[in-house]
Amino acid sequence: MRFSYIEPEFLIERDLERCIRCQVCVRQCAFEAHIYDEASDVVTADSNKCVGCLRCVTMCPTDALIVRPNPTSFKENANWTGRIIKNIYKQAETGGVLLTGMGNDRPYPIYWDHMVLNASQVTNPSIDPLREPMELKTYLGRKPERLDVTLKDGKVSLNTKLAPQLELRMPVLFSALSYGAISFNASKALASAAYEFGTYYNTGEGGLHRDLYQYGERTIVQCASGRFGVHKDYLQAGAAIEIKIGQGAKPGIGGHLPGEKVSSEVSKTRMIPEGSDALSPAPHHDIYSIEDLRQLIYALKEATRYEKPVSVKIAAVHNSAAIASGMVRAGADIIALDGIRGGTGAAPTTIRDNVGIPIELAIASVDQRLREEGIRHQASIIAAGGFRSSSDVVKAIALGADAVYIGTSALVAMGCHLCQICYTGKCNWGIATQDPYLEKRLNPDIAKERLMNLLRAWEHEIKEMLGGMGINAIESLRGNRLHLRGVGLTDSELEILGILPAGR
Amino acid sequence: MNDLYREREISGCGLSAYMDESGERSSGDDIIQSIALLHDRSNGLGGGFAAYGIYPEFPDSYAFHLFYDDSSSQVVCEELIHGSFNIRESGPIATRKAFGIGPAPIIWRYFVDPKEEVLARHNLSPDDFVVQEVMKINTNIKGAFVFSSGKNMGAFKAVGFPEDVGDFYRLDEYRAYMWIAHGRFPTNTPGWWGGAHPFTILDWAIVHNGEISSYGINKRYVEMFGYHCTMMTDTEVMAYLFDLLLRKHELPVETACSILAPPFWDLIEHMPEEQRNYYTSLRMVYGSAMANGPFAIVLGSRSMMLALNDRVKLRPLVAARKGSIVYVSSEESGIREICPHPDAVWMPRTGEPVIARLHEGVAS
To answer: Which of chain A's ends, N or C, has fewer CB atoms near its CB within 10 Å?
Structure first.
């Protein structure tokens, strides 16, 4: 390897008194940061290769390892930070585009942390979810503006037939994570957890593995610009179809699954040659305008006999509100908005870190615009992009989202440590890899349980927060911005979010 | 934008109402006596009444009751009224000096008919036009407030205890087949006459005890249909919800009640299929219209009195019947005070409306 100016990001420290030279760390590290020297019976480390995934630390039976940020630093400089200097070194050494994985890690304002929730005191009783019913059931899809009900001889009859809907036990779904970007076991865990819990997962653009068709009724199948794995049975298999226009981690550009991750199974599922790079184009080449989107929406509806809602996913960008309005008028039953903190398996760092807008502002402006135009009921809004906790979900619903997609949180539940190197295919946690040796580290049954535990925990917490506000059904929180107050926000931010400052 | 920065008023309350289904009219004495017994449920910061059948001399004209802060707002407002309506009669509403009632605004009454040519220009039904004009006055004309706009009915309200408000407006001199009364216990002190209950629009009058936790979304929901919540009270938004569901969406009143206080999913799941589909559809389409949180309301219209509790009964509501008269009150004592031996007394279940209707053939 050529000489590099780049200092290691992490230091691996080994307590030799504790180390029993079992070599677990050597076997666990796909990056070969740990080396066993047989002659001297010593395990050493090459910190240069460490990505900070903490797999070795977690697996070490004697707690002999510590991985910590390398304290060696460049001379302090507010403009030329270590991160910037290292990126320049990398590009000078390779001439390439900087790649990364997972969501934006730059310190943009996280508005969730600048919004606080309300609770009932005196004038209105809070409700105890352990003793009283607390309803989180959510339906996604197009609703009519009104129902036609007639009353005859004391009996009501409903004369309106509703469009197909997705029924969720609570307003959280698993976001699009394609098979190929993540392992089969990870896909299976998401599918089976969604199925058993009563929510949905999204295939992403990687098609649907034949062994996952059994979870079809809890699957949203995606149709992206590369059309990987899209065929009649695939469209029929899901409960809903999502047209992916954009992704929060990389608005305006397509996807790239490196050939290394296109195994035989991925190749069959995506319907592309084994080992070939799977490049999805930046735009859909049959969608250059809103009227083209309408054609694809209705082509998919025709193909599935209008039995499934069609979602359209876009990255949250400057004029999302106007775009969303057009999407609803073009026939989208669900609008998925993916904010600037949305995750990815691989994206150019400069795109991930600089393009798009925070999801909070996008939810607020899209919801408000659709209301002003009187078409809010025509489509549900799913928000995505960096949802970390049940309180983020509650705040998103209060701003106006119908439900929330979680991707990164689901991956973390399965064991992801956010080291951001998914694009290498060497995920030591068995999640973002197709290497059979690494993949089998993720037990799909255990991962499913962990995912369901996360959903259950959030479900409990959402019920507690709802009950505290004196609300016993999620629909009374949806778009109910009076239960939010802003802390440390400017007047413009408050106005866009449509909330009052705390204290008022 | 301005709305956003206005606070919502929160209040507890007492309410009493009765309707004689035979159409027989009675003076305001009984209703004042009933609400006076519930004195401790209000704190003197607002009381009000709605009375139906009080203007038989103008049964088909809209009776506008207005508060004016000063004579200049009256001049501006009357210009608008003259432009849109033929005024059949107008003048101050008669009042007498009453204990506990502070400085009053100018209180004026107009019996009006929308001008045909104006209706044609706006391409609206008379009712829709009246709603539009009332909204216009209440949002755009400073110091003017329409607090009643129905036919052959009227609202009377003020800052004070309800029994004193009844005395002030000389309600003993009116005769109505339905009386609705309300005493407020607001937890902040706007001290504004328009803020007292009932809230009315067209023939709808509503009084309310409770605090709606879903107010934020109910307000945004009705705004989609052109209603502007000018008073920032739960009661106002409830009135608009009823107007939307019953008048605009033409839903049966039972359906509207199932939308405001729907059954729980647990219950719906165990219903026969047709019923399950009905309630599921209601909740899916009208989720934003659900009134969540404690409430007991009484809604009046020309031919009907409706009382409804929230879905977990967090506010008191008692009903009774004696002959052709149906009573509802926050407390049983409020009923027995004026009807010591009712034929039946009951506690309405959550979400189950008490409905009294004028007998068929009775002119309202």
So the answer is: N
How many Å lie between the alpha carbon of B282 and the closest alpha carbon of chain A? Answer: 8
* Number of Cβ atoms within 10 Å of the Cβ of B244: 22
Enter the ipTM.
0.93
A2 interfaces chain B, CB cutoff of 8 Å: no
| CB < 8 Å from B in window 115-144 of A | 120, 122-125, 127, 132-133, 135, 137, 139, 143-144
CB contact under 8 A, B314 and A125: yes
User: Mind telling me the catalytic residues of B?
Assistant: 13
Do the Cβ atoms of B5 and A504 come within 8 Å? yes
Is residue A75 domain-shared with residue A210, that is, in the same domain?
no
Question: pTM value?
Answer: 0.93
Contacts A120 to B, Cβ<8 Å: 213
Could you please report the per-residue DSSP string of A299-349? HHHHHTTT-S-EEEEEE--TTHHHHHHHHHHTT-SEEEEE-TT---SSEEH
Task: Specify the CATH number for the domain of residue A360.
Answer: 3.20.20.70
Query: Average pLDDT in the B214-242 region?
Result: 88
**CB distance A169 to B269 below 8 Å:** no
> Nearest CA to CA, how far is B267 from chain A (Å)?
11
| Domain final position from A57, A75, A96 | A96
| Overall domain count for chain A | 2
- Count: domains in chain B: 1
Please report whether residue B335 resides in a domain. Answer: yes
Whether A500 and B5 lie within 8 Å, measured CB to CB:
yes
**Rounded mean pLDDT of B235-263?**
93
Contact predicate B289/B257, CB 8 Å: no
Interchain CB distance below 8 Å, A470 and B294:
yes
Which residues from B are below 8 Å from A495, CB to CB? 1, 4
Residues 6+ apart with CB under 8 A from A472: A127, A132, A133, A134, A135, A466, B292, B311, B312
A188-230 per-position pLDDT tens digit: 999 999 999 999 999 999 999 999 999 999 999 999 999 999 9
Q: Is the CB of B254 inside 8 Å of chain A's CB atoms? A: yes
Question: Is position A273 within any domain?
Answer: yes
In a domain, A105, yes or no: no
Tens of pLDDT along A98-107? 999 999 999 9
Residue B211 has pLDDT above 90, yes or no: no
In a domain, A194, yes or no: yes
Query: Could you report the per-residue pLDDT of A259-287, keeping only the tens digit for each?
Result: 989 999 999 999 999 999 999 999 999 99
- CATH classification of the domain holding B244: 3.60.20.10
Question: Which residue range(s) make up the domain with A378?
Answer: 166-501
Q: Report if residue A145 sits inside a domain.
A: no
Q: Which residue from B225, B254, B293 is facing A124, i.e. has the nearest CB?
A: B293
**pLDDT tier at B196 (50, 70, 90 boundaries)?**
confident
Among A78, A96, A114, residue at a domain's last position: A96
